[in-house]
Specification:
With 501 residues, the protein is an alpha+beta fold. 25% of the residues lie in helices and 32% in strands. The protein has helices spanning 2-13, 16-20, 39-46, 52-59, 178-181, 203-209, 295-305, 313-331, 336-342, 361-365, 373-390, 395-406, 442-445, 478-481, and strands spanning 68-75, 79-86, 91-98, 104-107, 132-142, 145-158, 161-174, 186-189, 217-222, 232-236, 244-252, 260-268, 271-272, 280-284, 291-293, 346-349, 352-355, 417-418, 429-433, 436-440, 446-449, 456-459, 461-463, 473-476, 484-489, 494-500. Strands 12, 13, 14, 15, 19, 20, 23 and 24 form an eight-stranded mixed β-sheet that branches. It has a six-stranded mixed barrel with strand order 2-3-8-4-7-6. The chain has a three-stranded antiparallel β-sheet with strand order 18-22-21.
Length: 501
């Protein structure tokens, strides 16, 4: 026991230089650096979004003063990361603080057959006096690839506190190029234990149980100002009033696992899209760079902002061959959920409609493989048409509108590029959360790299389709969190949003 206290003392001693730099309000502040932005780096960063691969697979039919602050580095407005220490003496690692997962993992010195490990710091258990190997084999699948390794325990240093007996994964295999190009060593999960792989205790839980935080709250401030070197701050145990303007508005967490809540209607240019009028589930995820939402809505956004989406021959074919029929069914009063099955494009299976055996262009090009494209596109077209019907548009106008939307269906793995000179003409987009609207301007939801003729602008929206009952689902990532300071209130099971300072 005496040795344990001595090691903890050494742990705290390691932080004396940073503690001496703390401001008078007791909050630890460290300036961050940003890296230059380029289009290839944006693409690489986007590959790190853990939900992206799941969407591809689905399309293919595959299965305050007492608070501790961790400074964050902004990588391409797409990755925010900071430093932690593991072991005695501490070994330093750069990690993404991810509210969309719950495990802590870093590369292990035993990772010798994965190239990615050689590009990052690796943990050496033999060099830590407080290290314990548990040895359970574990694997985590992210959208960008998978990692695997074994469980261990050690002291973890976060800011100026030391968390004892902390579970973490020593990674021995990193199976994706994105882990090579990523500017981080590992992941620091801040989700709920319910989604922790192997049932390992998340760091945040131990912070609470060991009395290391004043309040059961942590908050994110992500700095989106390109002129600043500082990337942001993650505050454990409270909030910093300098990080936000006004008061936070709170909504309850509806499901433990991710930080999930109920979201209302989504608006483009102040007009309802109608898609989430009856409610959608949403997740606030600091580990996702962009805003992810249903393809139907993202397509409308791309059309409204003039983004170049992927030309869908199936979508255009459907409008040409079945547009009149879908229109007539809607006008005759057929329930929107039954239109596609009555049109013969989907067949009813209980409360859901699933793809019929229609052979699409994609099927022909891939040797007759069955696909769900026509059914999915039909369901999107029904929503688009229904929304236009509310505005008393004629059939000709509506079909022309839907055909144009077809040209802007986003690629699950690609980028939606827009003309940087058109930002001033683009609409705001708004999320309804609780009884408030949270709006984003074009300058806030568009990522821009370069200047002048070399400037490239990328839509901050990506497509993600999660079927009921879990979906439809929105992922509010860093694009949203950069505009709205976010409080993760574990003690009261709620999320708070306020305008970032």
């Amino acid at each position: 026991m005496g040795n344990r206290y001595m090691l903890l003392a050494l742990c705290l001693y390691a932080f004396i230089p940073s503690m001496l730099e703390a401001s008078t309000d007791g909050l630890l502040r460290i300036n961050m650096k940003k890296r230059s932005l380029d289009i290839n780096s944006i693409k690489a960063a986007r590959k790190g979004d853990k939900y992206e691969k799941a969407f591809e697979n689905r399309l293919l039919g595959l299965s305050e003063s007492d608070a501790d602050i961790v400074p964050l580095t902004n990588y391409l407005d797409a990755q925010y990361f900071g430093e932690i220490g593991i072991g005695s003496p501490p070994q330093t690692f750069t990690v993404i603080f991810d509210t969309g997962s719950s495990n802590l993992w870093v590369p292990s010195s035993k990772c010798i057959f994965s190239i990615a490990c050689y590009f990052h710091n690796r943990f050496k258990g033999t060099k830590s006096a407080t290290y314990t190997k548990i040895g359970d084999t574990l694997e985590i699948n992210y959208g960008s690839g998978s990692i695997s390794g074994f469980s261990s325990k050690d002291i973890v240093q976060v800011g100026d506190i030391c968390v004892e007996d902390q579970d973490f994964i020593e990674v021995t295999k990193e199976g994706s190029l994105s882990f090579i190009v990523g500017k981080f060593d590992g992941i620091f999960g801040l989700g709920f234990k319910e989604i922790s792989v192997g049932g390992l205790q998340p760091v945040w839980y131990n912070m609470i149980e060991q009395g290391l935080v004043k309040e059961q709250v942590f908050s994110f401030w992500l700095n989106r100002n390109e002129a600043d070197d500082e990337g942001g701050e993650l505050v454990f145990g409270g909030v910093d009033p300098k990080h936000f303007i006004g008061e936070h508005s709170y909504v309850p967490v509806t499901k433990k696992g991710y930080w999930q809540f109920d979201m209302g209607d989504f608006l483009i240019g102040g007009q309802s899209t109608g898609f989430c009028e009856s409610g959608c589930a949403a997740i606030v995820d600091s580990g996702t760079s962009l805003l992810a939402g249903p393809t139907t809505i993202v397509t409308e956004i791309n059309y409204a902002i003039g983004a170049e989406g992927v030309l869908s021959s199936e979508c255009k074919m459907l409008v040409k061959e079945y547009g009149d029929m879908i229109w007539d069914l809607l006008v005759s009063g057929v329930t929107p959920g039954k239109v596609c099955s009555q049109a013969g494009l989907c067949f009813a299976n209980g409360a859901q409609s699933v793809s019929s055996n229609i052979e699409t262009v994609v099927d022909k090009e891939n040797g007759g493989l069955q696909d769900t494209v026509f059914c999915e596109v039909c369901q999107m077209a029904v929503i688009w048409m229904q929304n236009q019907l509310r505005q008393a548009e004629t059939k000709e106008v509506v079909l022309n509108y839907v055909e144009k939307l077809c040209e802007n269906i986003p690629s699950p793995a690609g980028e939606s590029v827009i003309d940087c000179n058109s930002l001033s003409k683009m609409p705001n987009v708004s999320f309804t959360i609780g009884d408030k609207l949270y709006s984003l301007t074009p300058e806030q939801y568009i990522l821009k790299t370069g200047e002048g003729i070399a400037a490239v602008c990328i839509s901050g929206f990506m497509a993600l389709d999660v079927p009921p009952p879990a979906g439809p689902l929105w992922i509010l990532g860093d694009v949203f969190m950069g505009v709205y300071h976010t409080v993760f209130d574990y003690g009261n099971m709620q999320l708070g949003f306020a305008k970032s300072a």
